[in-house]
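Recall from the previous chapter that SMILES is a line notation for molecules. Here it describes 2-acetamido-2-deoxy-beta-D-glucopyranose.
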Amino acid sequence: MLPPTFLSLSFSLLLLSASARADVQPFTGYANDFVNPDYIVAGKFSNTTLGAQQSIIAWAEYLSASGPWSVTNKTIAAPSGNKNDYMSWAPYYWPDCSKVGNTTVLTPQQIWVTCPYVDRDGQFNPDRLTIDDVGAFSNLSDSVLYNALSFSFQNQSTSLYSQRIARFMDVWFMNNATGMNPNLNYAQMARGPSGQVGQHTGVLDLKGMAKIASGILILRKRNCTDWTDELDSGFVAWSKEYITWLETNKPGIDECASLNNHGSFCFNQLTALKLLVNDVPGAVNSSQKYFEGIYKGQINKTGDQPFEASRTHPYHYRNYNLGAMITNARLLAYADPTSNPWNLTTSSGSTIQSALDMTMTVDPSVSGESDPSTVAEIYPNIAAVAAQYGDPSGKYVAFLKEKFPDYAWDATFLWDQPLQGDPGVVGSGNNGASGGSGSGSKDGKSAAAATAGPGLSTIRLVAAVLVVGFVVSW
Ligand SMILES: *[C@@H]1O[C@H](CO)[C@@H](O)[C@H](O)[C@H]1NC(C)=O
Ligand SMILES: *[C@@H]1O[C@H](CO)[C@@H](O)[C@H](O)[C@H]1NC(C)=O
Ligand SMILES: *[C@@H]1O[C@H](CO)[C@@H](O)[C@H](O)[C@H]1NC(C)=O
Ligand SMILES: *[C@@H]1O[C@H](CO)[C@@H](O)[C@H](O)[C@H]1NC(C)=O
Ligand SMILES: *[C@@H]1O[C@H](CO)[C@@H](O)[C@H](O)[C@H]1NC(C)=O
Ligand SMILES: *[C@@H]1O[C@H](CO)[C@@H](O)[C@H](O)[C@H]1NC(C)=O
Ligand SMILES: *[C@@H]1O[C@H](CO)[C@@H](O)[C@H](O)[C@H]1NC(C)=O
Ligand SMILES: *[C@@H]1O[C@H](CO)[C@@H](O)[C@H](O)[C@H]1NC(C)=O
Ligand SMILES: *[C@@H]1O[C@H](CO)[C@@H](O)[C@H](O)[C@H]1NC(C)=O
Ligand SMILES: *[C@@H]1O[C@H](CO)[C@@H](O)[C@H](O)[C@H]1NC(C)=O
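With both inputs in hand, we obtain:
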């Protein structure tokens, strides 16, 4: 079973990359997002977004290859001994064995319980990946979002994409044997003699709940037959238990009270899950609690974010919290269409736009953060701000054109619309077939549905989608 699956997957990805070569962006895992399901279900996408749609389909394929995921995949059980408990180790904590008095070298297992662990902010302890519940959940959440978007491009009530989501969601959440218990008692656990319990910072591990909520809401609104009533009520029941855990246990309470990005991401989860369980007033309530609470202190008069600026990777953390603030704004705008979260100000009178404008002036190399994946964290933030606040001077599009000319082929370009000025300007002309003549479909069509008078790249794309759709199994 495994070799043929692997072979056919490689084959179809190869075909995808050969046929739509320059038209997809390599996968980028962005901090967080909430994609308005009504915008997706309406499906009135500009024909400039065809490249983004192709990337989304490719990303769905790429991510799904490592699923399904389960907390029971890890070989080391949580201190409870319950293999259904989520566990992760605090990423910046390191053992200090200098004072434990051992006369021989300790095994890793002995170190975990014997040596005190100390915090070195920003320095990842590589052994945190010995267990990777956090990586598994991150893949799950991206996979659910991109598969749901890919499903939405087809005018069908069932598809390979939505079948995958059904299976992945069941294995991670609902299935009795493999499902996660609805708590984070052992997340970002500091080890050592006084450790072995989760820290509130570990609540951050499940920030991708906002992506999952987007994906499931899309399946629901499109009446997807693979997302059955049983799955839906199972996930609603799971989410209600988890919301209660978040709101009544110290780690959840402390995390949402954190003044920095941890607090912002905590509200991403709470608000998204309240929408998912159909508690719209509760979602509005929790989001308002964010905007009337910790948000007030997050952006100062110069647009800087003092709690992120003081960290070891200030460029990354500024963009990270921007992603969380943008997600909170999208959630509130969806939960209460009469609200105007983009105009809400902090105590100093600043908005999300002020924070983005300030961050655009930061040179990442000053803090040694020039690696391309860190530099790239700002792009979707720029696009989100440009789409929401407008871009009358053209400075946002100009920045993207200069630093990331292929931005129109990034997944987020699908929903960060409209980019004012000329939305087709970003990336056009230097990305193979999509930028050339005759590609794409009329307004209102999507990549997989674009069959009326298709250009060359559309024909290639449809062929690739069909092959992927029929050949890939998991
Ligand atoms: C993780 O667990 C699920 C459910 O048991 C299983 O289907 C999957 O193959 C496992 N993944 C790995 C990498 O072992
Ligand atoms: C004590 O254990 C640590 C961790 O294995 C090791 O680095 C150190 O060398 C050990 N001390 C002695 C004296 O063996
Ligand atoms: C997550 O996905 C990436 C990309 O496919 C893969 O390299 C990684 O092993 C996956 N991690 C887990 C825990 O599934
Ligand atoms: C979707 O499919 C239905 C039934 O097959 C058809 O009536 C409808 O026109 C299609 N919609 C689009 C946008 O193609
Ligand atoms: C799963 O567990 C629940 C509660 O423990 C039980 O009610 C349910 O029947 C079980 N489902 C299966 C498929 O075993
Ligand atoms: C889903 O079903 C509902 C109720 O039957 C219907 O009103 C709605 O139009 C359907 N939505 C789509 C996108 O098919
Ligand atoms: C709003 O939140 C407060 C606590 O912050 C709570 O007492 C109240 O019941 C909530 N209202 C709704 C509608 O969820
Ligand atoms: C805003 O925060 C930054 C970073 O902490 C600081 O350098 C700057 O002086 C602050 N500006 C104001 C007006 O407080
Ligand atoms: C902010 O509020 C003003 C006045 O109500 C409105 O014109 C503008 O569109 C709002 N901006 C955003 C980004 O919502
Ligand atoms: C895209 O849509 C615009 C406006 O509807 C139209 O003028 C243009 O010709 C279309 N481009 C392609 C390549 O279909």
